[in-house]
Amino acid sequence: MTNQEKQTVAERIRTSFESLTHTERLLANSMLDNYPISCLSSITAVASAAQVSTPTVVRMAKKLGFKGFPDFQAAIHNEIEEQISSPVTKFKRWNKAGSDTHILNRFADKAIENLNQSLAQIDPDEFDKVSAMISSDKHSLHIVGGRITSSLADYFFNHLQVIRSNVYRLGANPSRWPHYLLNMGENDILIAFDVRRYEHNLLTFAKIAHSRGVKIILFTDQWGSPAGQYAQHVFNLRIEAPSAWDSSVACLMVLEALLASIQTETWETTEARMNELETLFDETKLFKKFSG
Amino acid sequence: MTNQEKQTVAERIRTSFESLTHTERLLANSMLDNYPISCLSSITAVASAAQVSTPTVVRMAKKLGFKGFPDFQAAIHNEIEEQISSPVTKFKRWNKAGSDTHILNRFADKAIENLNQSLAQIDPDEFDKVSAMISSDKHSLHIVGGRITSSLADYFFNHLQVIRSNVYRLGANPSRWPHYLLNMGENDILIAFDVRRYEHNLLTFAKIAHSRGVKIILFTDQWGSPAGQYAQHVFNLRIEAPSAWDSSVACLMVLEALLASIQTETWETTEARMNELETLFDETKLFKKFSG
DNA sequence: TTTTTTCTGTTAGAATATTTTCAGAGCTAA
DNA sequence: TTAGCTCTGAAAATATTCTAACAGAAAAAA
Questions:
Q1: Alpha helices in B64-144, H assignment, sequence order
Q2: How many CB pairs (< 8 A) connect A and B?
Q3: What is the pLDDT of residue B93?
Q4: Which residue among A193, B8, B166, B290 is the one 20 to 30 A from B243 at the CA level?
């Protein structure tokens, strides 16, 4: 029985074919003929399609080891699910015909590919180490991004700021970066973002920070920012897109996954911080000034 | 009607999404969630999966133009037949067995699901219309985001700023938003971001902008910001994540796809702008000040 | 606030699907 | 041929699904 349950319904029919009666074989052939669609509608329809009576259908279902027709049909449904529920497959199948031509679909295809390839390159252990590093409040965090990546840096910063204390965002203007260096030492972590075209001042900054003992976590693209040589942990994320611009989707996803992980590690303290934040928002009605 | 019959059921749902009630949207999301398998079982099962009552299912089926639930389901069956009977490449599930345990994989799974589901709800024609709207330099663009979405707004703004002129970013402080309204009229477009928890001042702002004839394009989550009532185009993007935080991955992808589309439409003028920008960077060595 | 409208689930019963029963048809073997 | 058997579908019985009507809840408008 357990063995039987692992077979597809089609296989069960073929296996049991010898033991089926004449009329049941008619039904079996009809079912296999356009499997599994032929099995989707009601018992009445299935029966008449095979030109047999409904009791024949029930009897065969039971012979195949099902409790009844609904049970049989549920198995068919599960098979269909298995067959077409893979995310990528689903996407391919259920978007309009000719979907490959529309930029939205081309982009999505590429984005998913980027995600897969980026993930394949990430060592879960390293991910966990980074998560632990960022979670530990023994270190101050400094976040720096370039032209393209500043929004990502912002995003990460905004969330981390809620999760823990001592998170700093380096401004957009590199000429002021040296000032930040004054406060950075061996116990500090620099989270840097740098994708092509790599920014020279970031390289220099990383070099100096490294020489001061700052631990660097770098988010870069598949080719790797030169700043990687000074970094303790490097995430190489795919950014290719059918566009004149690169895609940050994979990077964002990893950042969000990191946030989820960090959040979990620090939940004890974070929960209180989040509640406090809610209270602050409510009390000051910071976001109500404009309401009529 | 004849036109409608050529759409897939998923497309019909997507097209009618705006006209659906709150509970019906729950159902629609549940159906699209694991489409089309989610629609295969009985009306009772479909209803309880979406946690709505069976009459709601019937009502929605009728709203979508079907005679009743059986008619609706027959359409699904036909679709499956169309899709499954043509030999399509079968994709393996990209993630290994047992991978479900690490947060990174769980997150990736969900992210891809979000992408698929978000895409399933986007009408390519509407996407193209929005792309055309943003591409046209007859309109000024104003971009506004909330607490959570400000980074996305920034990201979109940064890129659009390169692509075209007359793009403005509303500041983070809502109390200054009324000032911007002075410059906004019938020829202007407001690109707004609002996900849960929806921000009341944004709603008010959208209302006033709408009353001044401003066209609004809204990026929101699957439940829909209330500001949607004033918007000409609404993108409902999935944000669920195995995390205390929501995920912006799907939203970012659509933004990037839009940028790619806009970029293509405006390439003539954009090319010049980009070259000019490169020159500016080089000449001023804005980004070299810090180099050793 | 009060009124009106819209929405949504409960209920009941009609429609349909599924299963059981059973009689007769067809086959086989003596 | 005929007794004994299996097989099959008609029809009844049962279970389930589906729909219509309604009333209370929620939301919108006045």
A1: 69-85, 103-120, 124-135
A2: 236
A3: 26
A4: A193
Contact residues, chain A, for B154 at CB < 8 Å: 150-151, 154
pLDDT (tens digit per residue) in A24-78: 888 888 888 777 888 888 898 889 888 888 899 999 999 888 988 989 998 888 8
Please give the pLDDT value at position B281. Answer: 62
As a whole number of angstroms, the distance between CA B203 and CA B230 comes to: 9
Q: How confident is the model at residue B84 (pLDDT cuts 50, 70, 90)?
A: low
Nearest Cα residue to A196 out of A170, A224, A216, A218: A224
Candidates B90, B120, B159; nearest CB to A89: B90
Work out if A70's Cβ lies within 7 angstroms of strand C. yes
Contact B108 A147 (CB under 8 A): no
Q: Which of A112, A248, A291 sits opposite B252 (nearest CB)?
A: A248
Protein residue closest to C10, using CA and C1': B53
What is d(CA A86, CA A77) in angstroms, rounded to the nearest whole number?
A: 15
A190 within 8 A of A166, measured Cβ to Cβ: no
Burial A251-260 (b: 16+ CB within 10 A, else e): bbbbbbbbbb
The pLDDT tens digits of the residues spanning B125-172 come to 889 999 999 999 889 999 999 888 999 999 999 999 989 999 999 988
User: By the 8 A CB rule, do B150 and B172 touch?
Assistant: yes
B21 Cβ within 7 A of any nucleic strand C atom:
yes
Q: Are B195 and B146 in contact (CB under 8 A)?
A: yes
Helices (H) and strands (E) in chain B, counts: 13, 5
- In angstroms, the CA B183 to CA B209 distance is 11
The answer to whether residue B243 scores a pLDDT higher than 90 is no
Residues 6+ apart with CB under 8 A from B116: A87, A90, A91, A108
List A residues 208-227 in contact with B (Cβ-Cβ < 8 A).
Answer: none
**Residue B243, φ and ψ in degrees, nearest 5:** -160, 165
Distance CA B79, CA A90 (A): 13
* Side-chain-facing half-sphere of A265: CA atoms under 13 Å: 19
Distance A32 CA to C27 C1' (A): 28
Q: Is the overall model pTM greater than 0.70, yes or no? A: no
Whether residues A93 and B93 touch (CB distance < 8 A) is answered with no
Contact B253 A108 (CB under 8 A): yes
**Measuring from the CA of residue A53 to each C1', which nucleotide is nearest?**
D9
Please name the residue whose C-alpha is nearest to the C1' of nucleotide C21: A55
Sole residue written with tokens 């799907």:
B250
Kindly compute the dihedral angle of the four CA atoms of residues B85, B90, B93, B97, in this order, to the nearest 10 degrees: 90
| A97 part of contact set with chain B, CB < 8 Å | no
Task: Please state, in angstroms and rounded to a whole number, the distance separating the CA atoms of residues A81 and A84.
Answer: 5
